[in-house]
């Protein structure tokens, strides 16, 4: 009997729950250091945390060297470019606007998959799921942040965040199509360390570097962010390698990240409390995921019926 704890929806939700907790850690870390430098350290240490689970240390260098081209491509799109654009763009836009653009990432992943993956087309039900998800993100975000009319700086920030979404989608597709003999854990560890190191090196001439001893909360935040990145990205890479998983379907689960982020804020921050608009947004996102799962189950049953018919 198949272990239900290893089902794709369960693991996707776990990964998104981990990602949704990143906001608090990032806020703490950025009080003491610069964005690119903090991101670089976070992802480099995340890669190091995965390394002990990657098998024999003697075989890793040859394995990484053999797949270095794919590792560099994934590292560039999935870590370096994505988070360089993400942190830069987020610093240029109001909170609501940034949350909405970032929350629309599943749409860009679905469009890219539609154009580049043969069996991952954007049908009506999937488009409706994406539309409902983005609507829910808008309702949650607009209620939690003040909105301001976008000027030139904000427009540039929006553009950078859209590029970040595209970079993430491209990275997902490369992982899904990567057929070399390397495990998702090794692939993820190598790309996180490479991307993190590149972010850190780029931060030195751009942001400068200062040697200072920070309070314990900084190191706790860095450790937690490194752990969640290691765990969430590893889960995501494993799911992307499953033959039955589609990039567009998997990325729709990311709509629960703002839901979990809002709930976490209500639980941790005394000045925030549940209100009607964000709760309505959460219900709409729930409806989008229910529609997605209903459609996938219906298609799975139809395919099973076709395979079971006598020739």
Low-confidence stretches at least 5 residues in length (pLDDT < 50)? 301-311
Q: Output the radius of gyration.
A: 20 Å
Structural class: mainly alpha
The average pLDDT score comes to 81
Order of helices and strands: HHHHHHHHHHHHHH
What are the salient characteristics of this protein?
76% helix, 311 residues, 0% strand, mainly alpha
Question: Can you describe this structure?
Answer:
The chain has 311 residues and is mainly alpha-helical. It has one domain (12-209, 216-301). Helices cover 76% and strands 0% of the residues. Helix 1 (8-20) runs antiparallel to helix 11 (216-240). The relative contact order is 0.20. The model is unreliable at 301-311 (pLDDT under 50).
Task: Summarize the SSE layout with pairings.
Blueprint: H1 8-20, H2 22-29, H3 35-50, H4 60-66, H5 68-90, H6 95-103, H7 105-116, H8 124-144, H9 152-177, H10 184-207, H11 216-240, H12 247-252, H13 256-268, H14 276-308
Helix pairs in contact: 1-11, 1-13, 2-11, 3-5, 3-10, 3-11, 5-9, 5-10, 6-8, 6-9, 7-9, 8-14, 10-11
Short description:
The chain has helices at about 10-20, 20-30, 35-50, 60-65, 70-90, 95-105, 105-115, 125-145, 150-175, 185-205, 215-240, 245-250, 255-270, 275-310. It is mainly α. It has one domain (about 10-210, about 215-300).
């Amino acid at each position: 009997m198949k272990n239900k704890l290893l089902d794709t929806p369960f693991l996707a939700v776990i990964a998104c729950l981990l990602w949704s907790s990143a906001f608090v850690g990032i806020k703490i870390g950025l009080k003491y250091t610069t964005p690119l430098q903090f991101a670089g350290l976070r992802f480099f240490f995340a890669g190091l945390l995965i390394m002990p689970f990657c098998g024999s240390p003697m075989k890793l260098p040859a394995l990484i060297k053999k797949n270095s081209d794919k590792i560099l491509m994934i590292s560039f799109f999935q870590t370096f470019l994505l988070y360089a654009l993400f942190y830069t763009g987020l610093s240029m836009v109001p909170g609501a606007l940034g949350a909405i653009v970032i929350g629309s990432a599943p749409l860009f992943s679905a469009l890219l998959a539609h154009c580049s993956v043969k069996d991952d087309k954007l049908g009506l039900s999937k488009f409706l799921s994406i539309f409902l998800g983005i609507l829910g993100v808008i309702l949650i975000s607009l209620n939690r942040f003040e909105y301001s009319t976008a000027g030139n700086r904000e427009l540039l920030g929006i553009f950078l965040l859209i590029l970040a979404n595209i970079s993430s989608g491209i990275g997902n597709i490369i992982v899904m199509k990567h057929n070399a003999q390397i495990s998702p854990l090794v692939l993820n560890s190598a790309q996180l360390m490479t991307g993190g190191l590149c972010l850190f090196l780029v931060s030195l001439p751009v942001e400068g570097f200062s040697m200072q001893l920070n309070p314990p909360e900084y190191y706790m935040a860095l450790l937690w962010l490194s752990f969640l990145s290691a765990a969430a990205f590893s889960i995501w890479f494993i799911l992307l390698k499953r033959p039955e998983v589609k990039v567009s379907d998997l990325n729709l689960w990311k709509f629960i990240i703002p839901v979990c982020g809002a709930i976490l804020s209500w639980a941790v921050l005394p000045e925030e409390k549940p209100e009607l608009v964000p709760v309505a947004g959460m219900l709409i996102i729930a409806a989008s995921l229910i529609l997605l799962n209903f459609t996938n189950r219906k298609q799975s049953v139809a395919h099973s019926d076709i395979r079971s018919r006598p020739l």
